[in-house]
């Protein structure tokens, strides 16, 4: 199933925000200067091989998209669109196929609109391509918080590789890695305070809290439903809600709240801030669902980290939950957290035999559609076009 032809990649985001994106690693490195060279070295370790930098990229492109709207008050009729349509409160009379068609129509319209504008206007003449210094700082803060959480996550997961290299704790030991993660978070907090915007501070502090709670929810694993006979029942709506809430907390919250913060720093209306939040929330969920899929479909060299890792950690993600509905015997593996010698292999094979991977991909498309629909409510611009493309291409990412 294709939303928009993935070949439609007629805009290069690096032409729009390349210089800002490339300066992020250098700026972060400066922020990590301390009187303790060993601490600085460890904290900088993951930044030596830059990752996808997807969170800063989204903040930068969204800044351009929204700043343009704030500078040029828009009478875009799309803004009258009832955007609750794209979130939870789906009208009862619309079945999911109709809703999907509606979303696709809106998305195609947005692509068309964006294509009709001059894609590469000279930067100096286009006020709309401005990114405020506070938004650039915010982009760095998202990467700092994300990296801090990865350093700690790799200790919790006892992962050996990240970005194709040994993990921080493998190289420097657990104690130093914990402290380096704390230090990254502290530097992020100082940068955040310097934005002098209490609402933005509260949003990003909430993200940090959500990250911890999401990780805790994951440690508890799937909400298991013991039936009265004492055995585990098949995954139901509650199981999926728990999984999606955990996904929101561990991944989508950072995308969602930094998108809202981007709008707040632009001085935009509450409505635009809410649209930005919905965009980030749905994009983040699609992104994490693809991550959970890649754990079953990518090769280790594509991922730059071990694959099949979730099962080994006792975690049942969407492909497993769907497969379990089809093959109830998976329940006993989930219940004992894939702890017996053949459990991970048996579950892996059943997931590949089931339609779990296909169903998860459908779910990814649904969330990506919602994210793109939120973008449709913002004024067309080259940056909005780049975000639409980015969301569309995330569905097909291989790493
Ligand atoms: C990666 O998930 C981990 C996260 C998205 C969040 C981890 C959060 C914590 C460790 C809580 C502490 C937070 C802070 C801010 C210090 P994953 O293990 O599924 O992904 P992976 O395959 O890339 O390891
Ligand atoms: Mg991990
Ligand atoms: Mg983890």
TrEMBL record:
Keywords: Isoprene biosynthesis, Magnesium, Metal-binding, Transferase. It comes from the Eukaryota. One of its GO terms (cellular component) is transferase complex. The keyword Kinase does not apply. Its cofactor is Mg(2+). Signal peptide: none annotated. One of its GO terms (biological process) is isoprenoid biosynthetic process. One of its GO terms (molecular function) is prenyltransferase activity. Belongs to the FPP/GGPP synthase family. This is Uncharacterized protein. It comes from Smittium simulii. The lineage of its organism: Eukaryota, Fungi, Fungi incertae sedis, Zoopagomycota, Kickxellomycotina. The chain holds residues 139 to 537 of 537 of the full protein.
């Amino acid at each position: 199933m294709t939303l928009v032809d993935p070949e439609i990649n007629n805009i290069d985001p690096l032409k729009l925000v390349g210089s800002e994106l490339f300066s992020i690693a250098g700026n972060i490195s400066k922020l990590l200067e301390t009187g303790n060279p060993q601490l600085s070295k460890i904290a900088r370790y993951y930044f030596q091989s830059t990752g996808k930098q997807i969170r800063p990229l989204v903040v930068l492109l969204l800044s351009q998209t929204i700043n343009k709207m704030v500078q040029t008050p828009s009478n875009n009729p799309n803004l009258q669109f009832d955007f609750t349509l794209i979130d939870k409160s789906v009208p009862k009379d619309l079945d999911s196929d109709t809703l999907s068609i509606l979303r696709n129509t809106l998305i195609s319209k947005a692509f068309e609109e964006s294509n009709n504008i001059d894609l590469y206007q000279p930067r100096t003449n286009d006020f709309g391509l401005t990114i405020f210094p506070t938004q650039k700082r915010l982009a760095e803060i998202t990467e700092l918080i994300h990296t801090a959480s990865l350093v700690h996550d790799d200790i919790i997961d006892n992962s050996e590789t990240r970005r194709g290299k040994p993990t921080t704790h493998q190289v420097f030991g657990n104690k130093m890695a914990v402290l380096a993660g704390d230090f990254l978070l502290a530097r992020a907090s100082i940068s955040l305070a310097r934005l002098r915007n209490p609402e933005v501070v509260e949003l990003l502090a909430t993200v940090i809290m959500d990250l911890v709670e999401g990780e805790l929810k994951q440690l508890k694993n799937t909400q298991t439903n013991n039936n009265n006979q004492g055995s585990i029942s098949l995954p139901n709506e509650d199981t999926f809600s728990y999984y999606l809430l955990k996904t929101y907390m561990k991944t989508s919250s950072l995308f969602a709240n930094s998108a809202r913060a981007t709008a707040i720093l632009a001085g935009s209306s509450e409505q635009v801030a809410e649209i930005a939040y919905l965009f980030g929330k749905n994009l983040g969920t699609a992104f994490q669902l693809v991550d959970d899929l890649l754990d079953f479909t990518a090769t280790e060299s594509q991922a730059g980290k071990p694959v099949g890792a979730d099962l080994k950690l006792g975690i049942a993600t969407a492909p497993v939950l769907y497969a379990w509905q089809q093959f109830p015997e998976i329940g006993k593996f989930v219940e004992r957290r894939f702890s017996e010698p053949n459990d991970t292999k048996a579950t892996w094979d059943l997931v590949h035999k089931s339609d779990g991977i296909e169903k998860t991909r459908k779910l990814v498309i649904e969330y990506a559609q919602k994210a793109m629909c939120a973008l449709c409510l913002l004024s067309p611009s080259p940056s909005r076009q780049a975000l639409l493309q980015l969301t569309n291409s995330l569905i097909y990412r291989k790493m």
